[in-house]
Amino acid sequence: MKQNRVLEQTMQTDIQRILKGDQLAGARLIRLLEEGDPDGMAGLKAIFARTGRAFILGITGPPGSGKSSLVGHMITECRRRDLKVGVVAVDPSSSLTGGAFLGDRLRMRQHTEDAGVFIRSMATRGHLGGLSTTTREVALVLDAMGYDVVMIETVGVGQDEVEIAEFAHTTIVVSLPGTGDDIQALKAGLLEIGDVYIVNKGDRPGADDEVARLQGMLEMGKRPEASWIAPVLKTVAVKGEGISKVVDACWNHRQHLLDRGLFQKHTNQQTIRLFQRLVMDLAADKIFKCNRESTAYQTLLKNLKDRKIDPVTAAENLVKNMKVKI
């Protein structure tokens, strides 16, 4: 009992520190959320009322397009404008440990001593769509810590990275000059989700042609926000060229959303999506925990393994016959 009180007091102290921007306390809460620890959920409950203010900026595109270099220089530009920046860099998972292949040590080293910047690498852990399972929760922690901008850099696997557009207020799509595969990937979905398009490594041959090609494709496509014309910008991220125009374009899109009442609408939609996902996760956990030891459940699993029943029917039977009150 005494230990529980100590843990509760520690969590309360951490919450107060998080709301004041303490990075160590924020990192502890993020770790708890990633591990699925109940204390992580308790922390999320405590900070939620202080969230909903951060500008969520998504950066996606094919691997090798220079997203990390771009993000590093965008951090520098945002800091020059006196903005606090949180970054969630989503990486592929190790098949052995489940952790991210690339960690904070390898990313954006020039910002590690800046108290106005917080960078967190996260593993996808099998989650599709270019994000990690707990990306939304981590963004809420950074929001509560007072970061003005939260940048989400997706894993960079190409065509399936459209989930970020449902999450971020503004989505940047990065491509390269002279690679037809990038354009094919854009046609397959990325072309439809961007609010700002970037042709990085713009000092390479064919960069201007790529810009013109993207502009032409955008003119032919249909956009849900007809009043916003997505710009196509050219950058050389490793040299920091064109970065200020990218940040300007993102802030212009943010203002566009604010002027039309779409910024808060988007934030509210994200809250509802997180709520729906948590309901499904909690319900599924409860169903399996309550049925795991039952004879009927074990028989169902055996019949499934022996192919005497199909997975669809098995799931239907479990839900139909479950003896748990959700």
SSE layout:
Blueprint: H1 2-19, H2 23-34, H3 38-47, E1 55-60, H4 67-80, E2 85-91, E3 117-123, H5 135-144, E4 149-153, H6 163-167, E5 170-175, H7 180-193, E6 196-199, H8 207-220, E7 232-234, H9 243-259, H10 262-291, H11 295-305, H12 311-321
Parallel strand pairs: 1-4, 1-5, 2-3, 2-4, 5-6, 6-7
Describe this structure in words.
- With 326 residues, this protein is an alpha/beta fold.
- It is built from twelve helices and seven strands.
- It has a seven-stranded parallel beta sheet with strand order 3-2-4-1-5-6-7, sandwiched between helices.
- It is globular and about 65 Å long.
- Residues 93-101, 103-107 and 125-131 have low confidence and may be disordered.
Task: Write down the overall geometry.
Answer: globular
Structural class: alpha/beta
Count structural domains: 3
The CATH topology of the largest domain corresponds to Rossmann fold
Radius of gyration: 22 Å
Task: Determine the fraction of residues in helical runs and give it as a percent range.
Answer: 40-55%
The main sheet orders its strands as 3-2-4-1-5-6-7
At the first level of CATH, what is the class of the largest domain?
Alpha Beta
- Number of DSSP helices? 12
- Provide the low-confidence segments as ranges: 93-101, 103-107, 125-131
- N- and C-termini, Cα separation: 29 Å
Q: CATH H-level name of the largest domain... which superfamily? A: P-loop containing nucleotide triphosphate hydrolases
H and E string: HHHEHEEHEHEHEHEHHHH
Strand content: 5-15%
